Amino acid sequence: MEQQVIIVYTPEGGEPEHYDARALRTSEASIVQRTASMKWAEVLEGLEIDDPESMRVIVWVIKKRSDPSLRYGDFDPMIGEMTTRMDRREVSDYLENAFRAVEADPDVTREQVAAIAQRIVKVAADPGHAEQLIEELRQAPKDPEPDEPSTQDQPSPSSSTTPTSTSSEESGSASSPTSSTSPLLESTT
């Protein structure tokens, strides 16, 4: 489950302001709960769906730090002026988890995950970071085993990579581990 905790408040005619719900002190979270008549978990769930009350009360409490006289009733932004975004850590966690699907399912390609992962860019607080990370994860396979040309060209290096797959059991040719790996990937479809 995504945990979007960055609230972007863009007042009409103004510049976007970013508020991080994790920056609240415990006493401020208590004020949020009392004011919104919600438990903290409900407030966080509300952030995930851009609930106006959850966003409003958090922004208000943070704004009170610099303007202690700001009353809740006086801070009443338009619905379209607030939205939530994922911070860099959340984006990284989400994308790294998404690209694990490539390792778990041989039918899933890095290109497919990258195409689907583009959706995260629009909810990222830093879209450039999200796009860069998607591209890095798309291009950088973590497992060198699928590189069949290098194992076919030189049998010796493939035998040096086979100790992880118990080379003592397969004391035949060095190419047998790679040829037995490829059908396994195809047969799990």
Features:
disordered C terminus; mainly alpha; elongated; single chain
What does this structure look like?
52% of the residues lie in helices and 6% in strands. It is built from nine helices and three strands. It has helices at residues 26-36, 40-48, 52-66, 88-104, 110-117, 127-139, 148-153, 155-161, 176-187; strands spanning 6-9, 17-20, 82-85. A three-stranded antiparallel β-sheet has the order 2-1-3, covered by helices on one side. Mean pLDDT is 78; it is low at 150-189.
SSE diagram, text form:
Blueprint: E1 6-9, E2 17-20, H1 26-36, H2 40-48, H3 52-66, E3 82-85, H4 88-104, H5 110-117, H6 127-139, H7 148-153, H8 155-161, H9 176-187
Antiparallel strand pairs: 1-2, 1-3
Helix pairs in contact: 1-3, 2-3, 4-5, 4-6, 5-6
Instruction: Enumerate the strands of the largest sheet in spatial order, edge to edge or round the barrel.
Output: 2-1-3
Instruction: Please report the distance between the alpha carbons of the first and last residues.
Output: 27 Å
Helix residue percentage: 40-55%
Strand-residue proportion: 5-15%
Main sheet overview: 3 strands, antiparallel
**Strand runs, count:** 3
Radius of gyration: 25 Å
Low-confidence stretches: 150-189
Gross morphology? elongated
Helix/strand order, N-terminal first: EEHHHEHHHHHH
Give me the number of helical elements.
9
Helix-strand makeup class:
mainly alpha
What average pLDDT do the residues reach?
78
